[in-house]
Design a protein that fits this description.
Blueprint (H helix, E strand, L loop, with lengths): L2 H8 L5 E2 L5 H11 L3 E5 L5 E6 H11 L25 H11 L3 E6 L2 E7 H25 L1
């Protein structure tokens, strides 16, 4: 199973912001949309960073609420690990585990086309295990 199959099922919509967005606005969007990360893109929809709720908590916790007026580009993670639609779910699980990532942007032709979260991966794996279990039960019952 590939990443493309997951994002095709869940949708390609990704909430994005630009680097100049104030951290306060980004934090509001994270809370309002109940998401854990927001992708930072340039005018060509190329990924230039990612801002997670962890990033917000870290900077505000260390430096105080005055940092909420800073632009996201001062806080975001710049070295973003991305994947393509052709990557397998197994590969993404390994990447997420090794890097301790909860969100990975999906990029095709250098442009953002989706995002995959650890929740998406777990949901996919649970469904896959249920299908296998059902198939085994059917096999046993008909043998």
């Amino acid at each position: 199973m590939t990443v493309r199959s997951i994002i095709d099922a869940k949708g390609h919509d990704v909430l994005t912001i630009v680097p100049e967005t104030p951290l306060r606005e980004a934090a509001r969007l994270l809370g309002e949309h109940r998401i854990g990360a927001i992708v930072v893109v340039d005018a060509m929809r190329r990924v230039v960073g990612i801002l997670s709720e962890r990033d917000v908590v870290r900077v505000v916790g260390l430096d105080g609420p005055a940092r909420l007026d800073d632009p996201v580009e001062q806080v975001m993670t710049r070295k973003v690990v991305t994947c393509s639609g052709n990557d397998t779910v197994q590969e993404i699980m390994g990447t997420m585990t090794a890097g301790r990532f909860r969100h990975i942007p999906v990029v095709e032709n250098a442009r953002l086309v989706g995002i995959i979260s650890i929740g998406d991966v777990v949901k996919h794996r649970v469904a896959e295990m249920e299908r296998e279990s059902h198939a085994l039960r059917e096999y046993i019952l008909t043998a």
